[in-house]
TrEMBL record:
Family the UniProt entry places it in: Belongs to the major facilitator superfamily.
Function: Sodium-dependent lysophosphatidylcholine (LPC) symporter, which plays an essential role for blood-brain barrier formation and function. Specifically expressed in endothelium of the blood-brain barrier of micro-vessels and transports LPC into the brain. Transport of LPC is essential because it constitutes the major mechanism by which docosahexaenoic acid (DHA), an omega-3 fatty acid that is essential for normal brain growth and cognitive function, enters the brain. Transports LPC carrying long-chain fatty acids such LPC oleate and LPC palmitate with a minimum acyl chain length of 14 carbons.
Any Gene Ontology biological process: carbohydrate transport
Gene Ontology molecular function: fatty acid transmembrane transporter activity; lysophospholipid:sodium symporter activity
Organism lineage: Eukaryota, Metazoa, Chordata, Craniata, Vertebrata
InterPro entries (alphabetical): MFS_2, MFS_trans_sf
Protein name, per record: MFSD2 lysolipid transporter A, lysophospholipid a
Keywords attached to this entry: Cell membrane, Disulfide bond, Endoplasmic reticulum, Glycoprotein, Lipid transport, Membrane, Symport, Transmembrane, Transmembrane helix, Transport
UniProt cross-references to Pfam families, sorted A to Z: MFS_2
Species of the source: Takifugu rubripes
Coiled coil spans: none
Protein's UniProt keywords contain Iron: no
Length: 454
């Protein structure tokens, strides 16, 4: 299963490459390159994410109702959406030659890209259930996927950060706050990095299509198709799913707030920002196999507790100690360990929830995409909330667009958002996940029952 798992995993890279570039750099781009007011930038980020989240259940339902084709039920969605996703992504990073209507330009193309990305990512995520019926093989494919997706985040950060980072350094002598750190060359750098990402997006999609054959469903167990209303009711009334989603909603929100570009090393380590992000993501990539071993050996719930709480001391340390740069890099390596757990564990536990639903509802068909789409919906909702809150917080703190030196209130706001807020959110999420009912025994029992059903 390794070649298949690897090809499947490569298909997840485009989502994370574009997601990391947008998540880490779009706010900076809108504020300092496109020269938008922080209020309008926050509206674009929040509305775009909210629209993206709303489209997930819709696409999930449409995918669940799709007819199976010669290449499967999920693959046509992936192939058809990729070219449109690439085109709209490119236009997000283009600065139009007019001032009036800039806000509408970025809002429209941001929403269009998110829609196309949803048409790609929801069926791709649900494809996990069509690779194999064996839980071990699916867990292996998920581990491969998360490794590649973290690498995708590294790649997106590297491409965007390193190409653009060389053009936006502030002058060493800052006598005033109105010195802009962006020039025409910065816009060109964004275009170059965007073009590279678009090419990688298409290549990864091609590898996924050529390397993964979607497993056909057994005609004997197709059962009845769900209507949207009934599907929504059944998915949202499944207890393990609700507890899993809400628990990881809080933990995801914590990590999104913490890893947001404007919330880490903005003031004191401006020149090393891109490198620090790369260290965090590389550390996460290297530790995903460790977490895969840990959850196999000790169970997934224990892995959640240990992985999430690992980050708490470093969230406090990063703002409480005025350290040298080398200490910051060491803290970043440690923080990457928790980032790996945050990537791997939710997606590793979600197939167990879908299996549990199958055991309790053997006559229902087409529900896989609904589970994945609503899960993605809540993750994106958390992302939209974190982006909106952080951007508005900057505005209220007195952030000055394009200025190299920011008020002291901005620094205080950032410290609060990277330490106190994430720690509280993590502990709330862990309290909810403690009630998650699928332990190792129940998971193995479900596996046996499903094998008997097949």
């Amino acid at each position: 299963t390794s070649p298949l798992s690897l090809c499947y995993a490569i298909g997840g890279a485009p989502y994370q490459i574009t997601g990391s570039a947008l998540g880490f750099f779009l706010q900076i781009f809108l504020l300092d390159v496109a020269q938008l007011d922080p209020f309008y930038a926050s509206i674009i980020l929040f509305v775009g994410r909210a629209w993206d989240a709303i489209t997930d259940p819709t696409v999930g339902f449409l995918v669940s109702r799709s007819r199976s084709t010669r290449i499967g039920r999920m693959m046509p969605w992936i192939l058809c959406s990729a070219p449109f996703a690439v085109a709209t992504y490119f236009l997000i990073w283009f600065v139009p030659p007019f001032e009036q209507g800039k806000v509408v330009w970025y809002l429209v193309f941001y929403c269009l890209f998110q829609s196309m990305q949803t048409c790609f990512h929801v069926p791709y995520s649900a494809l996990t259930m069509f690779i194999s019926t064996d839980q071990t093989e699916r867990d292996s494919a998920t581990a491969y996927r998360m490794t590649i997706e973290v690498l995708g985040t590294v790649l997106g950060t590297a491409i965007q950060g390193q190409i653009v980072g060389g053009t936006n350094d502030c002058p060493a002598d800052l006598e005033g706050r109105n010195v802009s750190k962006f020039t025409v060359s910065t816009k060109q750098a964004y275009m170059i990095s965007t073009g590279v990402i678009c090419i990688i997006y298409l290549l990864c999609t091609l590898v996924l299509f050529l390397g993964v054959k979607e497993r056909k469903e057994s005609k004997r167990y197709r059962g009845q198709l769900l209507t949207f209303r009934r599907g929504l009711y059944m998915v949202m009334s499944h207890e393990p799913y609700i507890k899993l989603v809400i628990g990881f909603l809080f933990t995801s929100l914590a990590f999104m707030v913490k890893t947001h570009p404007c919330l880490t090393f903005w003031e004191s380590k401006r020149r090393d920002y891109q490198n620090i992000l790369l260290v965090i993501m590389l550390s996460g990539t290297l530790t995903i196999p460790l977490w895969q071993w840990f959850l196999t050996r000790f169970g997934k719930k224990k892995a959640v507790y240990f992985g999430m709480t690992w980050a708490v001391p470093f969230m406090i340390l990063i703002v409480s100690i005025k350290s040298k740069l080398i200490i910051s890099y060491l803290v970043s390596v440690a923080a990457g360990v928790s980032v790996a757990a945050a990537f791997l564990l939710p997606w590793s536990m979600l197939p167990d929830v879908v299996d549990d639903f199958k055991v309790k509802n053997p006559g229902v068909h087409g529900h896989e995409a609904l589970f994945y789409s609503f899960f993605v919906f809540f993750v994106k909702f958390a992302s939209g909330v974190s982006l909106g809150i952080s951007t508005l917080s900057l505005k209220f703190a007195g952030y000055e667009t394009g200025a190299c030196l920011q008020p002291e209130a901005v620094s205080l706001t950032l410290k609060t958002l990277v330490s106190l807020v994430p720690v509280v959110l993590i502990f709330i999420g862990l309290l909810i996940l403690k009630t998650y009912p699928i332990d190792e025994k129940r998971r193995q029992d479900n596996q046996k029952l499903l094998q008997e059903m097949l």
